[in-house]
Write a structure and sequence with these properties.
alpha/beta; Glucose Oxidase, domain 1; single chain
Length: about 300
């Protein structure tokens, strides 16, 4: 049974109605022309960092979540001749099948409900077997703003946080101090736990079964900072196993359902973190618009950080 303290915390961070009764973008509304200009101002040197993991059958999914399959590529045209001239143009085409949350992705606000609740009070029957008629990935729109890397692992003095490390608001403050960066309204926060190193090493099991991530003790921090979105370099986003056996994935419920805070997972932050450590700059322009898959509960994304 979900404990009473959870519902008290949910009430204190709730954003329903903040951007109108029909809003389907949640905290992405914090992204304004001003925050985008602030991001553009961070792109000084033209250094570009792709933050997506490769999309392949060797991805992070191990079958723990039903149907969340790694990308499967199939050749559907191989040197296929167009027309009758044997010396004419030929095409090569592919098809890809994948779970939309299999690789680097944003979760749409349709991704999670609990206790009959969806973000902003939308009815749960707007989510059907045919898809999400409300709060789908196609409603997220463009995601471009100032990005901030909070290297929680680096601030703790380790390459990789231990699985099960529950990141608190104090941890986030320490990471901001470590990077000498201020988190502002409308920023997109990227949290580095270092766990992507497991995936780079081919250790998919360690990457999947026990993760460091945001905890219940961090939820008010994100609400008070008015961040537009937050992404992690792990599979479950939040700390797993969780802090309380009586409630499963509580940070998902609070972020997505109560706050409308868009979550990202499987972001590869290793090269970016190394560059930030080299030049001491932990803010950048971040372009991270998801694929506008209509009625989907999430969507792949290729985030790009520009410094």
């Amino acid at each position: 049974m979900i404990p009473d303290y959870f519902f008290e915390l949910a009430k204190s961070v709730n954003n329903w109605g903040r951007w109108g009764a029909d809003d389907e973008r949640g905290t992405l509304n914090f992204i304004t022309a001003q925050t985008m200009r602030a991001g553009i101002a961070e792109a000084r040197d033209g250094r570009v960092f792709r933050l997506a993991i490769p999309m392949s059958e060797d991805g992070p999914q191990l079958g723990f979540v039903r149907g969340r399959t790694n990308p499967e590529r199939t050749t559907i045209a191989h040197l296929e001749l167009y027309g009758d001239d044997e010396r004419g143009v030929r095409f090569n085409d592919d098809a890809v099948s994948l779970g939309v949350q299999a690789a680097t992705h944003w979760d749409a606000l349709a991704h999670v409900s609990y206790d009959g609740r969806l973000y902003n009070g939308f009815r749960t029957d707007t989510i059907t077997e045919a898809g999400a008629t409300k709060l789908g990935a196609d409603k997220l729109g463009a995601v471009v703003s100032r990005g901030v890397l909070l290297d929680v692992a680096g601030a703790t003095g380790v390459e990789t946080l231990a699985g099960g490390h529950a990141i608190t608001g104090e941890d986030l403050d320490a990471a901001a101090e470590f990077g000498k960066v201020e988190v502002r309204e409308g920023d997109i926060v990227l949290l580095r736990t270092g766990q992507m190193r497991h995936l780079h090493a081919g250790d998919r099991m360690s990457y999947a079964i026990s993760t460091a991530g945001p905890s219940l003790q961090s939820v008010r921090w994100f609400r008070e900072k008015s961040v537009a979105a937050v992404a992690t370099d792990n599979l479950s986003f939040e700390v797993f196993p969780g802090e309380d056996d009586d409630v499963m994935l509580p940070v998902h419920m609070l972020h997505i359902v109560e706050m409308g805070l868009v979550q990202g997972q499987n972001f590869d932050l290793e090269v970016l973190a190394a560059d930030c450590a080299d030049d001491g700059r932990y803010s950048f322009l971040l372009s991270a618009t998801p694929e506008p898959i209509v009625n989907a509960a999430g969507a792949p994304v290729t985030p790009v950080a520009i410094k």
